[in-house]
Amino acid sequence: MSAETIRRICSFKGTLVCSMMIFIAISAVAVSLSSAAVSPLPNGAPTFNPQGLPLARAYPSLAYDEHARATFTQDFSSLAFHVSAVAQTGPDGVGPAYLLNGLTNAGYWYQVGLSWKWPSTNSVPLPGFDMNYEVFNQYGFSVFPANGGGGIAPIQVNAGDLVLLTLNFTGTDVLMQTTDWNTTSSTAEYYPSYGASRFVGLPNAVASNGFFTGLMTEEYHSTPYEGNVQPVVYQENNFNRSSAWLWVDEFNANNFQPVFSDATTSPISTDNASLLQYFSFHGMAEAISVREFITGLLPIQPPLLRTSTSSTSHPGEQVTITLNLQNPNNLAIRVKSLIISTQFGVFDVSSSVPSSPMTSNSTFTASIIVPTSVLNGNYTLTSIADWQFVPQLMERIGPDPLQANTTITIDGTANPANPHPSTPPPSTPPPSTATTTLNPLLTLLRTVLPLALLAFAIVAALVVALVLRKQRTRPIPGPFLTPIACKACGNAVAQTMLFCPNCGSSLTSPPDLESVSSSPQPPSPP
After folding, report:
1. Which of 153, 375, 472, 477 shows a CA-CA span of 20 to 30 A to 500?
2. 395 in helix, strand or coil?
3. Which domain holds residue 334?
4. Can you give the CATH number for the domain in which 288 is found?
């Protein structure tokens, strides 16, 4: 094997070893990361800065400002909503404002709405319904009316009337208008748009420095307040929205200290026109659909589900689960489906649910068969009930499924006889009990890395085999031929030559050839 061949093989071996070391290091890092605890992403409400919330006003005796809000996620060139004129007051004798809000792409925030007994600058309530309007610049300062603090304009509205709230771009201005369809009374204000052409939605946050495009019911109180107002319905006028945030908050308008705040964890889809999404927090409740936004709903306490079963069972036997549905509101409830999930299977027992709505606390049972292959031990039975309120508005509220756990001990040998052969087996394989939230990158590494290592090993083996095969088939140079001497002149010539390059004598005749010795020989005497 030549020195060049040896050099090439050594270089290849060095590359192969380095590559294998790199893959081993990557594998070690992946294993180390996957074995470490990964914290799940927080699932709390989105945060927003309460400082500088723009609706704070100088009402010394009414410092606590409470809001129920909906923030739209998409942009609009105009906004128009109907609102019901509800005459109501809180414990301090002042009433709420029902407001339409628009944040423009120039950063200005426009508000128009209807209020009932809105507090004046000395905290004394005004006598009836009025139009509210205000504009804030991109820095959060009230710029219209010129003295700040919000504007009040008279309008003829009676309790129960349907009132249209409008925000439109007209020429170089934004039009803020309130119109009563019953009395035909209308009031409008204009303020420059500063080049803006649309009201922007917020898909990633409930507000931007306190500004947003959407709807809001607002009321002031003298002390921290966690009560509610009467239901107020906002209805869209000829446009649809895809999703919206729902959020409620209260803060001290004198020092901007928050009292409470909470929001949905993500925008709520409003694609389903028949579904009214419900949100409740701190004594306040609101709901939204594709065409409606409602504030002032009474907080509804969802039903509770409790389960129990026998303490011990055997493989192959029937297990009966007793389910107790507690209905604190005494509202009609229908359970649409019931699933029992265990470590040894998932069972659909919806047929065990009462077919008629339940208006009070109800108890019923469901049964499953323990597979004969189940090992002895303690097992958790998780009952998951999908349900809904039945009558009128309640049937459009999308509640979370109810869930309850109970534990059973499987003990003894399997019972081969199935006393209830009609009971279906588990509908799905046993679910995994792992609850650790994995980083998507680690999941990708765990999936791809073994395949990459296998592919690398195959390629490396093929390369080594090809190199070795090439070395075996490469011709090995034979021994070097010993030079010979020309018989005529005595000079050394190669054995492959036919004529002496010195004297021209033929070298093909064996007598004329002789090997060259290590030292030259003198010619023979004549």
Report:
1. 477
2. helix
3. 304-410
4. 2.60.120
Helix (H) or strand (E) holding 12: helix 3-35
In a domain, 50, yes or no: no
Domain boundary among 295, 324, 353: 295
In a domain, 435, yes or no: no
Cβ 294 vs Cβ 286: under 8 Å: yes
Q: Tell me, yes or no, whether 422 lies in a domain.
A: no
Looking at the structure, do residues 263 and 155 belong to the same domain, yes or no? yes
Counts of helices then strands in the chain (DSSP H, E):
2, 29
Query: How many Cα atoms within 13 Å fall on the side-chain side of residue 223?
Result: 3
Q: Which of 327, 305, 297 is nearest to 397 (CA)?
A: 297
Give the DSSP H or E segment for 78.
Answer: strand 78-84
> Among candidates 42, 40, 32, which has minimal Cα distance to 442?
32
pLDDT greater than 70 at residue 120: yes
- How is residue 379 written in tokens? 């097992």
Q: Give yes or no for residue 213 having a pLDDT over 90.
A: yes
The CATH number that applies at residue 394 is 2.60.40.10
Of all residues in the chain, the percent with pLDDT exceeding 90 is 47
**More reliable by pLDDT, 489 or 13:** 489
Evaluate if residue 245 carries a pLDDT over 60.
yes
Determine the average pLDDT of the residues in 505-513.
Answer: 57
The CA distance from 346 to 193, in Å, is: 59
Nearest-angstrom CA–CA distance, 276 and 295: 12
233 located within any domain: yes
pTM of the model: 0.55
Q: Quick one: pLDDT at residue 49?
A: 36
Question: Is the Cβ–Cβ distance between 231 and 292 less than 8 Å?
Answer: no
- Which tokens go with 416? 């081969």
Residues 367-415 pLDDT 10s: 999 999 999 999 999 999 998 876 544 444 556 789 999 999 998 776 5
CA geometry: angle at 245 spanning 240 and 247, to 5°? 135
- 388 and 518: one domain? no
Quote the CA–CA distance of 271 and 291 in Å, as a whole number.
10
Give me the long-range contacts of 202-207 (CB less than 8 A, separation at least 24): 202/71, 202/72, 202/73, 202/103, 202/245, 203/73, 203/74, 203/243, 203/267, 205/46, 205/48, 205/245, 206/46, 206/48, 206/69, 206/71, 206/245, 206/247, 206/263, 207/48, 207/71
Alpha-helical runs (H) found in 108-151: none
Which residues face 187 on adjacent strands? 178
